[in-house]
Amino acid sequence: MNISAAAAAKKISKAQEKAKALRDSVWPDLDEEMLWNRKSVSGFTTIPRTMPLVMNIIDALTKNKPAGTAYFVMWCRTFDHSLLVIDNPMTLSVEAGFSGERALSTWKDRMRSLVELGFIDAKEGPSGPYHYVLLFNPHKVVWGLRDRIQASTFRQLQTRAIEIGAKDMQPAQAPASVSTAET
Fold first, then answer.
1. Model confidence over 47-86: pLDDT tens digits?
2. Count of Cβ atoms closer than 10 Å to residue 153 Cβ
3. Is residue 143 part of a domain?
């Protein structure tokens, strides 16, 4: 069933109206200035609603060297073009929760894992091997790794994707092959 963009917007606004009505009934004296509203403040980005599950999957795949937080830090710094320029890797290292003498080497190790798993690609630049980072669609990456993920965890992600209407939780499309006709 296809729904138009206008119908989808209407559905979203109805859901938002219901949520606001519920919030107002549970917290009738709420000062709305205490809430984060991405439409009225600066400093927001778009993040998949499945991110907590994706981070858990990353952590499970990088046993004893969890890289989920490093991945999340990058999502918090990118815009819709999925490119991140990392001028100061130590800043991201600290944001990811790494500290001490090995903070930077720990962060680089996690970045290497994210490249190996296919969640990101990186190119060298002035600040080192992870100066330019491209973030791939995590649903496509996870789909490609599904044989390495516990079936129940993968199902949980699929279920959440369906709940939120994420239509991209499917295999990546293979590039169309060019056929040559013989004469």
1. 899 999 999 999 999 999 999 999 999 999 998 889 999 9
2. 15
3. yes
Number of domains present in the structure of the chain: 2
Which residues neighbour 160 within 8 Å (Cβ) at sequence distance 6 or greater?
Answer: 49, 50, 53, 166
pTM for the model stands at 0.82
Residue 183: band (very low, low, confident or very high) from pLDDT cuts 50, 70, 90:
very low
Structure-block tokens of residue 59 = 């952590």
The CA-atom distances, in angstroms, between 84 and each of 55, 111, 167 are 18, 13, 25
Tell me, yes or no, whether 139 lies in a domain: yes
SS (H, E, C) 94-129: HHCCCCCCCHHHHHHHHHHHHHHHCCEEEEEECCEE
Same domain, 98 and 166: yes
At 56 the three-state DSSP class reads helix
Check residue 33 and report its DSSP letter: G
Residue range of the domain that includes 26: 7-34
